[in-house]
Amino acid sequence: MRYLPLTPDDRTAMLGVIGAASVDDLFVDVPESARLSGPIECLPHHASELAVERHMSRLAAKNLSAGSAPFFLGAGAYRHHVPASVDHLIQRGEFLTAYTPYQPEIAQGTLQVLFEFQTQVARLFGTDIANASMYDGSTACWEAILMAGRITRRGRAVLSGGLHPHYAQVVKTMAKFSGETIDMRLPELVAEADDDAVVAALGGETSCVVVQYPDILGRIPDLAKIAEAAHAKGALLIAVVTEPVALGLIEAPGNLGADIVVGEGQSLGVGLQFGGPYLGLFGCREKFVRQMPGRLCGQTVDAEGRRGFVLTLSTREQHIRREKATSNICTNSGLCALAFSIHMTLLGGEGLARLARINHARAQAMVARLTQVPDVSLLNATYFNEATLLLPSDAREAVRALADRGVLGGVSLGRLYPGEAGLANALLVTATETVSDEDIETFATELEGVLA
Amino acid sequence: MSAANAAGWRPTMGEAGDAGPRFTTASGDYALMLKEPLSFEIGRSDKFGVDLDEPATAPLAGLPLRKAAPDLPGLTEPETVRHYTRLSRQNYAIDLGPFPLGSCTMKHNPRLNEKVARLPGFADVHPLQPQQSVQGALGVINELAHWLIALTGMHGVAMTPKAGAHGELCGLLCIKAAIEAKGEDRRVILVPESAHGTNPATAAFAGFKVESIPANEAGRVDLEALKSRLGPDVAGIMITNPNTCGLFEPDIKAISDAVHAAGGYVYCDGANFNAIVGKVRPGDLGVDAMHINLHKTFSTPHGGGGPGSGPVVLSEALSPFGPLPFTARTADGVIHLVEEENAEEFDHRQAFGRMSAFHGQMGMFTRALTYILSHGADGLRQVAEDAVLNANYVLRSCEDLLHAPFGATGPCMHEALFSDQGFAQGFSTLDVAKGLIDEGFHPMTVYFPLVVHGAMLVEPTETESKAGLDRFIGSLRSLAERAREGDERLHSAPHFAPRRRLDETLAARKPVLVWKGEPGVPGTPSLSEIGGS
User: Fold this and answer.
1) Which CATH architecture best describes the domain A70-81+353-451?
2) What local confidence, expressed as pLDDT, does residue B219 receive?
3) How much is the pTM?
4) Phi, psi values for residue A166, rounded to 5°
5) Contact, A266 vs A78, CB < 8 A?
6) Chain B interface mutation, best of A63, A435, A446, highest count of B Cβ atoms under 10 Å
7) A413, A390 in Cβ contact below 8 A?
8) CA-based nearest residue in chain A for residue B87
């Protein structure tokens, strides 16, 4: 077996040192009735690299990859061009095969990256601080709601109808067990985000309002207005960003009054990967630091006074606080954070702003062309790189028919909100810098054919 | 602080009389030992490593436009590659040498897994693509699920949890849903005192009350103490097997039977599954739920702290409550994603809900399945045997110098546990750990489990050669002797790492979590003062 260095001679010699007759003597504590006498039956035995690669390649070939078709999906996962150097750098063994930096003297590479990452996220979000990452945007969103409950000592969260429905489902699931009250709503097919409904739902028991920016339909809520209303009632504003590239164009949530900003960092550096692993981003006001979940990297000095970095404030965390921890999270998304950080460094602030302008321009071109298709209209008053189209018939059927024609033509609201007949004709379409004029033309032509 | 080190980063020997560089270079670098400032100190927000053409279109009216571009430093590609490559060289990694962190299973990460995960058919597919266009991706999830069920002898598996602790949460939520379905009110989860911190944290996160169960003198769960605590308020037990002392719980069947008889469920923390994969199936031991850290047993890279992946195998009693979405293959060969809308069609109405957006850590699934197919049923069994053999070899090769608290009770599983008993006054486990850094090794897990004073938990894994282990054992024995003799140089180790011991108290007392300096602004320390170039 190519991954196992011990030779039969080694094993014999080692058993001699141990004083055991056979390796089975080392498993004496396993109840005899439960010991397996040989390899589990009905499972294949070991295979060569060539054979395994062939098998996996066949499975991969059964998928229509985004790069091989005109591609317009978003809804919380975005296809951006990732510079080649990002994937090269994250595969350096010193990053790829290191553990969580619990021994800081020999983990300064990872730790400095995390410190840079935290600073990048905080500046992108307009928050004072950020943590070293969470599992993904949806779990970061739930952790933010719990954190708001700890800070305000209130137990009712108001969710905008514009929050990604999977995020809302995660919140609903987790709240069943934690006891938080969740006031949630469906999106309405109107041009503007549901700012007024969210503000109207605020009460004296509200711990936080959760608003996605831009929202699931691509609309851009007025965060400053919601923040003011929330603060007047003693509640916090949690802004959720599922497309961080948008923040190269529109104002950072923290600069508009959001108290906690969470998001999905997949857009930068991390591929689509059929949904994971992704990268949860988490920023907030500095005064909330001791209520934050997740790992934090902090600056310090070594015994000779040189700057260095360590994991810090671990008295919030499970390995110290056990059942009194702020969260049970242990592993984060270190390698995805590294990819995000490298991509962000390759862009810089001006590059990110330009990338955002390109995305916005591509989306405008897409919307202009698709709304020329008969009976197709645009819902949104505002959008960044993703917008909602109203079709004359069930959008889910249209998406399936488009896939049969080799076009990955967006995400139907029927897929996201099954059973909601009122949303069934809406189609969410996204254009990033990867979308060409030819892609848009093919999409429009095929959509017209599908709807005819 | 030695005056010779004022220029900043270098592998200083520090102590007077030690060998080491006798002069300071003009650059502050020393041959292959290179320091690296922060990107914020060398980048500029108007610099980039990506060529982008400015679009001609003006933004839509009514957008809340940023007043200025984000203040983020950019670098060109050569500068970026150099920045991160230089940083990478300040990390220890499994690619460089043994990484014997107990309970972390730092084994070799095969590169075929990386190659496969990057095939466009896996890496470049969107989670919400029409299902007809992702049958191969759903096939990977389904095939891996099949293996995990077969290897554990369980009934079902929830694939979406994103890491071990997330998997624990998934298992406990299944237990909670099952209890609610029976109309019972059980709020207590029993956790052995030797458990990893995530166990009690997860139980509390899931809304349970946590109670501790003591260990007996042999480092195992005290069966009688457990039995006396069971009752109508106990939802179940979270047990780690092999446990955190590196020992198999020989009473596991009796524990499961007792918990089941009292109406509770058995959650097993599968962090240590590497010791028993292919040798024993948790389903045969009465386990109801167990998470499997794909980043441990099945070798998906740890990546400096994630991403992980924590699928949870479930017994027949708990499977109906597993979360959405999951995959199901129908007789026509089509693989379906079962979500909120078709859960009823697939007879899964009791799902407790959704744990995360999308379908789990697909990038980890492709790697883990590649690893599993490479080893096969026979190779995985050999993995467990070699992992256990290596750990016992370390245990028996060091126990004359390092106190092994459970060494007399019999063999260990995949990790060897030592304590600081016998060290000279004032010498501790931390000194040995930092000494290992100077020896060129990553330290073992220290001060865990909490039930052993000054614990040192060594998990070599099966991917270390005998020659590599002999080198490690030689260093560990030497350090044990030095700690017993009271070698003062150990107190100040590491001497040869990129940094000396770091002041963790300062970091926590005055947290600096983001970079606030501005280059060239008065009051900001100069780069040479803070160790930059």
Assistant:
1) Alpha-Beta Complex (3.90)
2) 86
3) 0.95
4) -65, -40
5) yes
6) A63
7) no
8) A109
